[in-house]
Amino acid sequence: MRFRSTLAAATLLCAQSAAAFDASTLNFEQQAYDYNSSVSYTQLGLSDEALENNDDTLGFNDSPAHRLPRYLTTAPEKDWDYLMGQTYTILGLSVATVGMMTFLPESVTNWTAEDRDFSNLTKKWWDNVSEGPVWDKDDHYLNYVMHPYFGGVYYTAARHSGFNEFESFVYSFTMSTFFWEYGVESFAEVPSIQDIIVTPLFGAAVGEWMYLAEKDIVANGGEVLGSETIGDVSLFFLNPVGHIHHWVTGIWQGDTEVQMSYDPWFNNADAAKFAADAGANYDNQFIGMQVSLKF
Description:
This protein is mainly alpha-helical. It is 59% helix and 4% strand.
């Protein structure tokens, strides 16, 4: 009888010790999966494949608190919705960039006063597209530094959405050539030969380097040269669209409606009547974008 009591007590003690050990282990793993933890992912012996697919292998489905931000992960398969969301963000950033460039001096943009006049957008776009492409005279840092960088930004957007190297190059080529060069920028200037070639080709090489460098920083716990601040800044410039898309969608809960408008008063009859009474001329050639956000 004494032997059985002693055996039962020993068994209970072992069970309690095992439970305590499991809780401690679980605590450590939760800290390890937290991006803000000082424990790096490489210390856990995780493979590059696990870091790239980071779903069940890293326990990211356990709790949102222990999940890497979406912009620091790679979709395990093609995520068209995420790519489309990033494309909308790029559209908004591009329009804002053009607006900012209209305020920069001509010595920087090579845009004349006529280029900055957007009163007749349709005709200006058609004239510029018909005249090009031409060999531009932009500064070298614009043609061979900034354009490859932005080509890389397009490229990484596709890579994070689960597309491979070639597919990401096609996306970068489409965005840089048809969306930007023959799209947004053609409202102000003639398409450039250098930009059509340099942006997607060099951008693919730069973009793959940016993508791999970002993964290395994440695997190092988000630090660069032992600094989380430098790491955060580096991660932003390696994937600015992903970060900005995350911030913006977080503000309006991802619920938004975007539609193009060709009515200068956006179908607002009261505004149109007020403008007409004030003597404003009706512009038959108008392109606008109406964005509805839910906060």
